[in-house]
Amino acid sequence: MLRLSGLERSYKTHAGVNYVLRRISLEIREGEFVTIMGPSGAGKTTLLSILGMLDDGWVGDFFFLDQPVHQFDRKRRAELSRRYIGFVFQKYHLLDHLTVQENIDVPLSYRDVPRAERAAIVGDILDRFQIVGKKDLFPNQLSGGQQQLVGIARAVAGNPRIILADEPTGNLHSSQAKEIMELFRRLNQDGTSIIQVTHSEDNAAYGDRVIQLRDGWVTSDTPVRQHAEIQS
């Protein structure tokens, strides 16, 4: 589904070149649930931004669904991202001036889905996530867990092939975090590929693989069970 080869990301500074990612080569298959871990500054969020085609300043080979992303211009990458990728953020990134229903509709409007079809999709999503009763509320009227639930509902509305989640439970207490991770598990079991960045070993246990980054390098890529044994 997704393959990187020799990918690097750097920034020029007065002192020279600062590398954030170094020679990243990895493959993620359709239907996998992959966790990216590592200390602060390891390059996790940068890597996720590149995978989501939100960052253009990298070099190397990047194939997504057999398409050579590294050969595409910014517009074509954005189109590919909108069509196949859903995003879930730690700080929710809901639009404060829009209701729950309107927030979920946003990615569909970007894809030029007809209004009647959008309404039907949003209605199905509200029902699926059991938030019909909150459809007319604004984000500031919701708890953190409810806002993240809406964030995931928004990501799923476009029927993405893959969801990229950056610290999706970082602002939630433990019971809310468990609820969100159980939801990710169900989405994955239904066929959606998931890549999450997290510091949480509990969250990592929901996935299939753990990729460890340190100082921009991939230092390990292990199945969840093996990773758990190493940590213990």
Gist of the model:
This protein is of the alpha/beta class. It has a single domain (about 1-95, about 160-230), classed as 3-Layer(aba) Sandwich (Rossmann fold). The protein is built from 8 helices and 10 strands.
- Determine the N-to-C terminus distance: 31 Å
Q: Which sheet architecture does the biggest sheet show?
A: 6 strands, mixed
Oligomeric form:
single chain
Q: Average pLDDT value?
A: 93
The structure class reads alpha/beta
Query: What is the number of independent domains?
Result: 1
**Rg value:** 18 Å
Topology pattern, helix = H, strand = E: EEEHEEHEHHHEHEHEEH
| CATH class annotation | Alpha Beta
Counting DSSP E segments of at least 2 residues, the number of strands comes to 10
What CATH architecture label applies? 3-Layer(aba) Sandwich
Portion of residues in beta strands equals 25-35%
Low-pLDDT stretches: none
Helix content: 25-40%
For the biggest β-sheet, the strand order reads 6-7-8-3-9-10
By CATH, the superfamily comes out as P-loop containing nucleotide triphosphate hydrolases
What is the count of DSSP helices, taking H or I runs of 4+ residues?
Answer: 8
Structural summary, described in words:
The protein has 232 residues and is of the alpha/beta class. The chain has a single domain (2-94, 161-231), classed as 3-Layer(aba) Sandwich (Rossmann fold). 37% of the residues lie in helices and 29% in strands. It has helices at residues 44-51, 74-84, 100-110, 115-128, 144-157, 174-189, 201-204, 224-231; strands at 2-13, 16-28, 33-37, 58-64, 67-68, 85-89, 162-166, 193-197, 209-214, 217-223. The strands form two sheets. It has a six-stranded mixed beta sheet with strand order 6-7-8-3-9-10, sandwiched between helices. The radius of gyration is 18 Å and the shape is globular. The model has no long low-confidence stretch (mean pLDDT 93).
